[in-house]
Amino acid sequence: MDSSIILIFISLATFLILSVPIGIAIGLSVAVGIVFGDTLPSSFLIQKMFTSLDVFPLMAVPFFIMAGEIMQKGSMAQRLLEVSRALVGHITGGMAHISVLTSLFYGALSGSSPATVAAVGGIMVPSMVKEGYSRSFATAVNTSAGSLGVIIPPSVPLIIYGTTAGASVGDLFIAGIIPGLVIGVFLMLCSYVLARKYGYTGSGKRAPLREILVAFKNSISALMVPIIVLGGIYGGFTTPTEAGVIAVVYAFIVEGAILRTLSFEKIWLILRGTALTTSSIFLVVATATALGQILLFKNVPDMLVNVLLCMSDNKYVLIAIILIFLLIMGTFMDALANILILTPLLLPIATKLGMHPIHFGIVMIICASMGFLTPPVGVNLFVGCSIGKISIEKLSIAVIPFLITMFFALMLITFIPSISLWLPGIS
User: Fold this and answer.
1) Each residue of 376-419: pLDDT tens digit?
2) Which of 327, 299, 296, 322 is nearest to 311 (CA)?
3) With contact defined as beta carbons under 8 Å apart, do 375 and 400 qualify?
4) 253 alpha carbon, distance to own chain's centre
5) Domain range list for the chain
6) Model confidence pLDDT, tens digit, residues 328-342
7) Widest Cα–Cα separation across the chain
8) Residue 418 to residue 427: CA distance in whole angstroms
9) Beta-carbon contacts of residue 153 (< 8 Å; ≥ 6 apart)
10) Chain-centre distance for alpha carbon 278
11) How far is residue 219's CA from residue 79's CA, in Å, rounded to a whole number?
């Protein structure tokens, strides 16, 4: 491999070990490659960094982030919790199932994994501890379920992948629905098994139909968000960016004018949170684009293709190798950086192996979602520790059964493409 590429990756690894933020770490490693290695001219890379942000689908990112911020600061999470309680509260380990189901609902509102952990876990972890669940189990359930936030559409990582891979963001959104539900069911099965082992019972009393209908009635404003977003996109009425704008307006009207949960202080926090999150994402997009250009210039994708194809001629073995590689990289790198850097490298290999770009995108996002649960980068773990008041070591051990469960779900989704491709109608 070219010496400048080796230098870039050594410097990137060093910066990450030193806990430098991922966007800055990638930018600094590119700068090291420019100064000390034989790479593309800095003027060309800077131009590419700016043009990478001048993409219409990326405009959807700040809007979906803002919609998620509005709903996080409002009361929608609590209303969704009541629906979940009415539906699954009576099952063994009922509170755990409520957490997973609420995270599924909320993931369709926020598009963010850490936000889902914070919003749902902030309510559920103290409630579960009060009901007699161990603090580590309660935190692990909510931390793991929060990973559904980036799989269930709308999802910021899906937008980033679509932009990077040149794939339809609308098709990616639709394709993420069934895989998200599959993983949710797997997490509930895992919760059920562990609940029986530890003796965590449900309420034991199935909610009457009237109570379920009342819960749905009270939460209809929240449940309408994914219907409006996905219905508009797949019905051909809106682009993902326009759907993001509609989501913001709708959330603001519901939380501010109808439910009256937004104060001027909360609005300031919403705007501040949106600006900070968006700027950090766009910094990663810009710097990762520069790194991607260098990798393409040095023919790294072609080299990687040749290396993998030399390892085996069995496509299933090669796909398994790609999955393992994605999971390992997810432990060390931020999800967005993984998508931006690895998509140009791995997508050509995946398509040669017969994987549709939409299917590969869903698989890649699921791998990234598992990266939220693995140290040292695992963002969900740090959010969970803060909410559950437990150490990172205890939480890392407690999430292992859920990680194993998600891995089996990943295998199923990877090797049965129709799970992802059926709803978008892609063959």
Assistant:
1) 777 888 888 888 888 888 998 999 999 999 999 999 999 999 99
2) 322
3) no
4) 26
5) 40-421
6) 888 877 788 888 888
7) 70
8) 8
9) 108, 111, 172, 173, 174, 176, 177, 180, 226, 229, 230
10) 15
11) 5
